[in-house]
């Protein structure tokens, strides 16, 4: 078994970074632990030819996946973050990062990636202050749902956006890489990662009770303010508009353990 693994120690829970590095080394994997202020993408650029993996949260995954795409190299996901949504939707055991190391000698599949203004994302982009809380519902803090409702009450105005030129009187807007199972205050799971489509979800009303959904290859979101608060795979950002979303079907080569 061979390959190169970037370990983000700031993401780790349970297994510590040194233990994971040692386990990887025993399998012949060159594992590097990120130092403070080191960029995971820059470290991944040091990888020799072959599979490139990352042990970290969803934000770290996206950065290293970009390097794998540039090289057309197989990508390995080791769940090591807080939520690990992408690892979950790949069918990996989020509580067993060591088992995920077997993917370096596993089987290959291809999955879709998406972009917002050319920035890669693997899961979704949620827009607005409330939408950041929505992103965290499934595994978040105990009172996140109540905080989300309270935020809606305190901030009754919509996002002030258009989608492909049409006004969207939205309180919440999420664009995802493939379809999610949703209720209004939580983002669930995806049944597949190779559908080849973006899904846009809009929640309307003073206290939203349902989602309006549409799918497509591209979406353009504009805002009167010229910028929007967002969470990109859980990473908080402020983005200048227009936001141009697009899907890249079957772009990413992913290795999975043979028993997955």
Helical stretch tally? 7
Uncertain ranges: none
Total strands: the figure is 18
Span between termini: 18 Å
Please state roughly what percent of the residues sit in beta strands, choosing from under 5%, 5-15%, 15-25%, 25-35%, 35-45% or over 45%: 35-45%
What does this structure look like?
The two termini are 18 Å apart. It is built from 7 helices and 18 strands. 22% of the residues lie in helices and 37% in strands. It is elongated and about 55 Å long. The mean pLDDT is 87. It is of the alpha+beta class and 260 residues long. Strands 1, 2, 3, 4, 5, 6, 8, 9, 15 and 18 form a 10-stranded mixed sheet that branches. A 6-stranded antiparallel sheet has the order 14-13-10-7-16-17, with helices on one face. The protein has a two-stranded antiparallel sheet with strand order 11-12. The longest helix is centred in the first third of the chain and has 14 residues. Helix 6 runs antiparallel to helix 7.
């Amino acid at each position: 078994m061979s390959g190169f693994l970037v370990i983000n120690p700031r993401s780790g829970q349970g297994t510590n970074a040194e233990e994971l590095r040692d386990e990887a080394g025993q399998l012949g994997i060159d594992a590097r632990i990120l130092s403070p202020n080191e960029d995971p993408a820059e470290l991944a650029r040091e990888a020799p030819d072959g599979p490139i993996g990352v042990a970290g949260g969803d934000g770290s995954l996206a950065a290293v996946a970009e390097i794998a795409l540039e090289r057309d190299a197989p990508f390995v996901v080791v769940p090591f973050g807080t939520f690990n949504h992408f690892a979950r939707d790949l069918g990996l055991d989020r509580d067993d990062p060591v088992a995920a190391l077997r993917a370096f000698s596993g089987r290959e599949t291809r999955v879709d990636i998406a972009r917002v203004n050319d920035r890669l994302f693997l899961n979704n982009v949620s827009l607005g202050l409330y939408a950041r809380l929505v992103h965290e519902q499934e595994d978040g803090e105990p009172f996140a749902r109540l905080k989300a409702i309270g935020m809606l009450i305190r901030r009754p105005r919509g996002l002030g956006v258009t989608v492909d030129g049409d006004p969207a009187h939205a309180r919440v807007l999420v664009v995802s890489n493939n379809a999610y199972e949703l209720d209004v205050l939580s983002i669930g799971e995806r049944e597949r990662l190779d559908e080849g489509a973006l899904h846009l979800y809009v929640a309307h009303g003073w206290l939203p009770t349902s989602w309006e959904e549409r799918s497509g290859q591209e979406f353009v979101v504009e805002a009167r303010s010229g910028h929007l608060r967002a969470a990109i795979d859980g990473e908080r950002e402020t983005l200048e508009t227009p936001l141009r979303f697009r899907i890249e079907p079957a772009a990413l080569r992913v290795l999975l353990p043979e028993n997955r």
